[in-house]
Design goal:
Strand order of the largest sheet: 1-2-3
Shape: elongated
Distance between the termini: 93 Å
Helix content: 40-55%
Strand content: 5-15%
Radius of gyration: 30 Å
Mean pLDDT: 84
Number of helices: 15
CATH architecture of the largest domain: Orthogonal Bundle
Structural class: mainly alpha
Order of helices and strands: EEEHHHHHHHHHEEEEEHHHHHH
Largest sheet: 3 strands, antiparallel
CATH superfamily of the largest domain: Intergrase catalytic core
Low-confidence stretches: 383-390
Number of strands: 8
């Protein structure tokens, strides 16, 4: 009967041998976490030094990985491999955003460390330093990128766990959600309709579409004519147009799985879309094309960055400097909230995977109009502040 194997993660007896030219080497066999037994040795000027070096190596040892990542790989090299993985798996501008944070923040501060040297204390100190000079949302994004890279290393077996998970939370000041109230919506649309530059760049109708659906600007300009169901009075939101670095305009299947959805169209928006629909429309025609027109398919895609710039100019000219295209999404969510829809229903409508994000970040809690006061009048009748209510 053969000798039983070493327990996983343990090593055998340490043996020390002299080198002919001087010094010593210490060697042993270790059974790695993948079940394979391998020989490990280290050298030193004395036998004791060689043994200490060997035991230090055993403490830090992880199994050989299936990629080019080991415990001694630098954070900068792991980050490069992680970003390549992101490029393959994620859509749109995610890679560009991650690469920006890696280049500007993570690699300058931690790129020279070996991944085995990155612990919770170092991660926490790095994030606290970022909080001093960066906005809370940016620090959260930086944390996401660092966590992704170290999680990538952990999945490959280079480190036992991702230290970012145990680092402290990012503190930030919650900002009040501001949406367009009814009077502001009416005023803004009237000013956009009267602005010749805004009209020439199709900003008024695009704004109506975003207000009436809650779509992102990239989703709105990605809608084709075949996404409109005139009998059911719906639009299928199934794509997003983004500009990707070194690639150009890309039309992909939406920011997330939750982004793909079928939305009911309000009557005012159906009238708007019907009036602007050309006679020579094709299924692949863009509902909001660029200046070259509806019938050119892919060639008529609008650039979201240019469209955002045109929208910015129009909003500034109208006196709404605080408004962005994202405010239109917040306005849509707030309107639905005030109409009594549940947070889950509103999240599904505007394409959020989690209703908590919709509630916390997208709903304006300010009262719009006198509905609340009218409800109290209905409940308390003519009872005044000095009158006793039985």
């Amino acid at each position: 009967m053969g000798r039983p194997p070493l327990p996983v993660g343990s090593h055998g007896k340490v043996r020390i041998y002299p080198w002919p030219a001087g010094g010593f080497r210490a060697k042993t066999k270790v059974r790695d976490s993948d079940g394979v037994t391998r020989e490990v040795e280290r050298s030193g000027r004395t036998g004791a030094a060689a043994e200490r070096a060997l035991k230090a190596a055993l403490r830090e040892r992880t199994a050989p990985t299936r990629g080019a990542v080991t415990a001694d790989t630098t954070v900068a090299d792991v980050m490069a491999l992680f970003l390549e993985d992101v490029r393959r798996r994620r859509r749109g501008t995610t890679h560009d955003t991650y690469a920006l944070h890696a280049r500007n923040h993570v690699v300058p501060a931690m790129g020279g460390l070996r991944v085995r040297e990155v612990n919770v204390a170092r991660v926490d100190a790095f994030l606290r330093a970022c909080e001093v000079r960066l906005a809370a949302n940016t620090v959260r994004s930086v944390r996401t990128v660092l966590s992704g890279a170290l999680g990538f290393a952990a999945r490959l077996g280079a480190i036992p766990s991702n230290p970012v998970r145990d680092a402290g939370h990012i503190e930030g000041t919650a900002s009040n959600v501001r949406a367009l109230v009814r009077a502001e919506r009416v005023d803004l649309l009237a000013k956009l309709d009267a602005d010749e530059d805004a009209y020439r760049h199709d900003i008024p109708d695009l704004t109506r579409f975003m207000l009436g659906t809650g779509c992102r600007i990239g989703e709105a300009i990605a809608v084709q004519d075949d996404a409109l169901d005139w009998s059911d009075r719906t639009v299928s939101v199934v794509a997003n147009i983004v500009r990707v670095r070194r690639v150009g305009l890309v039309r992909h299947e939406g920011k997330t799985f939750a982004a793909q959805r079928v939305l009911p169209l309000p009557g005012f928006l159906l009238d708007c879309l019907s009036e602007r629909r050309p006679d020579d429309v094709m299924p692949s025609s863009m509902v909001f094309p660029n200046s070259r027109g509806h019938a050119l398919g892919r060639k008529s895609w609008r650039d979201p960055q240019n469209t955002g710039a045109r929208l910015r100019d129009a909003l500034d000219a109208a006196g709404y400097e605080w408004v962005t295209s994202h405010v239109f999404r917040k306005t849509a969510a707030t309107v639905l909230d005030q109409a009594g829809l549940s947070a889950r229903a509103i999240a599904g409508h505007i394409g959020h995977a989690r209703p908590s994000i919709t509630q916390d970040v997208y709903m304006d809690k300010r009262a719009d109009g006198r509905d609340a006061a009218d409800a109290f009048d209905a409940a308390f009748g003519s009872a005044g502040p000095t009158e006793t209510v039985q």
